[in-house]
Amino acid sequence: MMLLPWMIKRLLLAKKFLPSIITGIFLAWLLLSLREPTQDFGFDSIAFGKLPVLANGRLKPLDTVARTALLMIHGKMAISDTEGHAMTPAEWVMDVLMRPSTADTFKVFVIIHPDVLDLFHKDIAQGKYYSFSDLKPFLDEVDRQSKLSEDVPSGSRNIFQREILKLRDRILLYNQLKSSLHSDESVDFTDEIATFRKALDNGLKAFRERSEGKNFSKDDLSVLGEFFNRYQLFARLASIRPVPRGDAQEWKTVGDSLLETIQTGRIDRAIDAYATMTTAYRSKNVDVFNQAVADYRGYIGESFAAVVKKTDYEFLFNRFEPFYKCMILYVCVFLLALISWLVWPEELGKSAFWLLMLTFVVHTAGLLARMWLQGRPPVTNLYSSAIFVGWGACGLCIILEKIHRNGIGSLTAAAMGFITLLIAHHLSFEGDTMEMLRAVLDTNFWLATHVVAVTLGYASTFLAGFLAILYVVRGFFTTSLDKATAKSLNNMVYGIVCFATLFSFVGTILGGIWADQSWGRFWGFDPKENGALLIVIWNAIILHARWGGFIRERGLMNMAMFGNIVTSFSWFGVNMLGAGLHSYGFMDRAYLWLVTFDLLQLILISVGLFPLKYWWSFMSPDEKAASTKN
To answer: Parallel, antiparallel, or unpaired: how do β-strands 107-110 and 129-131 relate?
Structure first.
């Protein structure tokens, strides 16, 4: 009997420290994730993954190249070899670059559409994942169907035509990647470089003798010409540039560097290093491979210290995956905030808020890291805009929660943070999320301020809409919407709409100033410009309707939910029109999700229009009893 009071006392004490305990556990998890990874045995894929290359216009580690390619080809970064052993992206790219015959057997290509599968032999048309070796006998048919599909205007293509073009692009990306260090004809890369060095010396000697009118060896000149033609084709196929130069944009492909050698007479040290790595990897000589990687990293570190510092940081960024961890944290915040409405409201509510603050710090750190790596403002494409919208909404919700302390801010921040990061995750399938900006988006002061302001307008308008959804869901489906909570939500939505109106208006004006400097006109009724103006107008209509007494509490909520439709169209919908100067970042598969989201908003608005007597929170006890019986 004496044990029970002791247990209750301990439980109450533990409850008091619950926010500190929960936050401490997640903080420890995050700090442990920041540890520098090590590899004590086998091929050093970690050091290899850190090697810098130029790809798609920017310097990045090979680890990023691998992750991007896997997302585009495979749809995820988790991959297994033929024996079912899990591989990291860096281990996969090592096989693709240096042992392509092995990489060809990995089932990385995703094919789901039945009409596309009908192009292949029935023996391989099993499941959804296929290797390059599976597809190789049918590449001519894929190419033929792709050419036929290309002849159809993009807006008129059916699902099969779009899917066959996607498959063609994935196969092309894979072929470009595996042709980046050596050609398919190369058996021993080190031996090939030695042969080329000898042919270079003899060929250049023959060329000089011919120029001086002396007798020369036609065979030596012919051998050098064969190498020249081979490396010229090889240079066109490669997708990465691993050979460093002083200017970041002048890094060379292996083929271009070898062609340059014909003029300079000197083979770049990077070529010798990659040749040694490739030969050692193919012969499974771990010690030679690891030493070659270490020596080359030492050389790069001395000659290109700034580049190595940045690519090493990006490698750590990739391993830490801040936004994926934020998604996990947002889910935990959501659950804590939800449970706090049922039990231990003070302790669990505080736990949710403290964990939300920690998540916001990680989210902010991820944003700042991307800005430093890119050297750009926080918003440069649709992916980064999704990241920034979630961040802005989370920051606003922290302010709301600090003022009202009712768990609504924490719950809404978690929901919006998770949804926007989920959107960003799916946008990452389209390629490098830190791609170089298009010329039309080349940054200046007005662009930087415009995108930040207008994206904060997106975030706050969405936040007002999500708070309105919470109002309707709690009021119509539960009994938890009391007068105090309803008033609190009303004040939140009104305040956020005011904030949204200001930032969407300022962002639109700043966009006009930027357009005037970049394109010579302030306004051109471009679809994206019209979308931004629609957000401003809709938010202004909400405020005027409220000030004029045309709407009250429920009317404000319904109009705020319709703001979600306006903003989603302006954010994504205008990109699907395929017209205008802002038609970039198009995703045809986002169309279904956009329509589904908008239909859901219309359903919720319809629910919000129901008379209060049908709302569960506003029913009298007799009405609730009658409703339950029915």
So the answer is: antiparallel
Count Cβ neighbours within 10 Å for each residue of 405-418 and write b for 16 or more, e otherwise: ebbbbbbbbbbbbb
pLDDT, tens digit (0-9, with 9 covering 90-100), for 399-420: 999 998 888 999 999 999 999 9
Give the pLDDT confidence of 569-609 residue by residue, as tens digits: 887 777 665 555 555 544 556 677 888 899 999 999 999 99
Per-residue pLDDT tens over the stretch 247-296: 877 899 888 888 888 777 788 899 999 999 999 999 999 999 999 999 99
Q: How far apart are CA 355 and CA 488, in angstroms?
A: 23
Answer for the pair 458, 567: CB distance below 8 angstroms, yes or no. Answer: yes
Whether the pLDDT of residue 439 is over 50: the answer is: no
| Helix-then-strand count for the chain, H and E | 26, 6
Beta bridge partners of 130: 109
Q: What are the angstrom distances between the C-alpha of 561 and each of 169, 398, 422, 540? A: 39, 21, 20, 14
**What span, in angstroms and rounded, lies between the C-alpha atoms of 509 and 459?**
18
Please compute, for residue 433, the number of CA atoms within 13 A of its CA located in the half-sphere on the CB side. 30
Give per-residue burial for 196-222: e unless 16+ CB within 10 Å, then b.
beebbebbbebeeeeeeeeebeeebbe
The closest of 174, 192, 41 to 108, measured between CA atoms, is: 174
H or E stretch covering 68 = helix 62-74
Q: Is 342 left (phi over 0), alpha (psi -120 to 50) or beta?
A: alpha
How confident is residue 189, by pLDDT bands cut at 50, 70 and 90? confident
With 60 as the cut, is the pLDDT of residue 441 above it? Answer: no
Closest C-alpha among 252, 233, 128 to residue 175: 233
Q: Which two tokens stand for residue 243?
A: 């050979």
| H/E element, 489 | helix 483-519
Name residues whose C-beta falls within 8 Å of residue 40's C-beta, 6 or more positions apart in sequence.
none
Q: How far apart are CA 514 and CA 523, in angstroms?
A: 10
Distance of CA 603 to the CA centre of its chain: 30
Contact predicate 331/419, CB 8 Å: no
- Cα gap 451→440, rounded to integer Å: 13
218-237 vs 254-264: helix axis angle to the nearest 10? 150
- Decide if 333 contacts 356 (C-beta within 8 A): yes
Q: What is the pLDDT of residue 488?
A: 92
Residue 156 has pLDDT above 60, yes or no: yes
> pLDDT of 196-252, one tens digit each?
888 888 887 887 778 777 787 888 778 778 878 778 777 788 889 999 988 877 899
Instruction: Give one word for 585, left, alpha or beta, with left for phi > 0 and alpha for psi -120 to 50.
Output: left
Tell me, letter by letter, the H, E, C secondary structure of 356-388: HHHHHHHHHHHHHHHHHHHCCCCCCCHHHHHHH
pLDDT, residue 392, reads 93
